[in-house]
Amino acid sequence: MFKTIYTFVMFVVYIIAIPFLLLLSFKKKYRSSIPARFFLYKNTPLKSNGIWFHVCSFGEAKAIKPLVDKLPKDKLRFTTTTHTGKEVIDRYSAKRSRYLPFEVLLFGWIKPQKVLVVMEAEFWYLMFYIAKLKGAKTILINARMSERSYPKYLKMRWFYKELFKYVDEVYAQSDIDKQRLQSLGATNVKTVGNIKLYDIQKATKELIKPNGILVCGASTHDKEEELILDAFYNFKQQNKTAKLVLVPRHPERFDSVYELSQEFALKHSFSIHRYSQESSFGSDITIVDTLGELVNIYAISDIVILGGAFEPIGGHNGAEAAQFGCKIISGKHYFNQKDIFASIDGIEIVDKDELSDRLLAYKDIKPSSVTKHSDIQPILNGILDKIER
Q: Whole-angstrom Cα distance, residue 151 to residue 302?
């Protein structure tokens, strides 16, 4: 009965949403994902009998690489719901990567797979149900339940109890995540740590560091760039040769962040350029409007202002910067990254109105370091167990 009602409700939602989806599909951000996800345009089913990974974001897609590298390449299949995630999974195998269709379209789209591996909190009920119905072993990896979101999940406990009936194994980031997931109905839960700490992405090329202190505003979101620019202005009054590199989190914001920064630079007589037009850091401010360069920039940065936590976003992975010993400053809204932050020594946590003062006192911040790693072997065993049968 639950499956029937849920499917009917999702179908009604889908029909109602069609006009809005058609309009959104003209936006650059959704030009490829919406036609594929909601109208199956050029979105053929994945080949049967494989290891199907489903991820959401750019970061999640990158995080599964250690698992991908240890599994049979001909068995791998990938789906995502975002265009940044799609860019990453295409690198693993463009022929075997797809956008995940909306739930009511999955009945005919999903083919029998050996294993479905879902990353973090992609709780699509029909995806788990149909995959399980067609013979897949279903696994949730890097599972988390933040203190902030847990009360919201509890209100929907009846739903998650139904969903977890179709999840065979869960690998949690921490013991508290394990307890919270179990309270929602998850079974066979093991704590293995955050897989983003297993094999931290290394620099892919060596960049030339400019003279002076290099400050990196990393993975920034709306309102955070303005905050960082203001803090950098005060910092540069005392450190004349300092340079700022801004790396917005989402590609669709590249232009607006450049326009904001250009106006700021003009006001204060700072030089500025876009990294896509000149791949150097000679200007006072550089806007990085390309993907895949952040870890390389971390390698030459002195100070990293880690975005996503000065606004209630949840924070971002600080381990990539910490491996290079950068001095890291973060906001207080890092509720999605508590496990990773607990594994890093040296991150400075400040209120957003304290950022400027803390940046000025950067000499008192100790270099960061990663103090704890995770174990992916139990996850690999869980996947290979089904493949080898």
A: 38
Burial tier of 373 (Cβ tally within 10 Å: 0-12, 13-18, 19+): middle
Strands 369-370 and 344-345: antiparallel
Mean pLDDT in each 10-residue stretch from start to end of the chain (389 residues)? 94 95 88 94 96 93 93 96 93 94 96 96 95 97 91 95 97 94 96 89 93 97 97 97 96 95 97 96 97 95 98 94 97 91 94 96 96 90 83
**162 contacts 2 by C-beta, under 8 angstroms:** yes
User: What is the residue-wise DSSP string for 150-218?
Assistant: HHHHHHTHHHHHHHGGG--EEEESSHHHHHHHHHTT--SEEE---GGGTSPPPPSSPPPPPSS-EEEEE
The H or E element spanning position 87 is helix 83-93
Q: Specify the fold of 2-198+375-387.
A: Rossmann fold (3.40.50)
d(CA 195, CA 250): 23
Reading the block at residue 215, the tokens are 């400050």
Question: DSSP for 11-75?
Answer: HHHHHHHHHHHHHHTTSGGGTTHHHHHHH-TT-PPPPSSSEEEE--SHHHHHHTHHHHHTS-GGG
Q: What residue spans define the domains of the chain?
A: 2-198+375-387, 214-370
Q: Is it true that 2-198+375-387 and 214-370 share their CATH fold? A: yes
Please say whether the structural domain 214-370 has been given the CATH code 3.40.50.150. no
Q: How far apart are CA 327 and CA 249, in angstroms?
A: 20
Bridge partners of 243? Answer: 214
Distant-in-sequence contacts of 34-43, Cβ < 8 A, 24+ apart: 36/98, 36/99, 36/101, 37/81, 37/99, 37/100, 37/101, 37/102, 38/14, 38/101, 38/102, 38/105, 40/101, 40/105, 40/109, 43/98, 43/99, 43/101, 43/109
pTM exceeding the 0.85 threshold for the entire prediction: no
Place of tokens 């590298």: 69
In this structure, the number of other CB atoms found within 10 A of the CB of residue 74 comes to: 10
Query: What is the spatial distance between Cα 216 and Cα 307, in angstroms, rounded to a whole number?
Result: 10
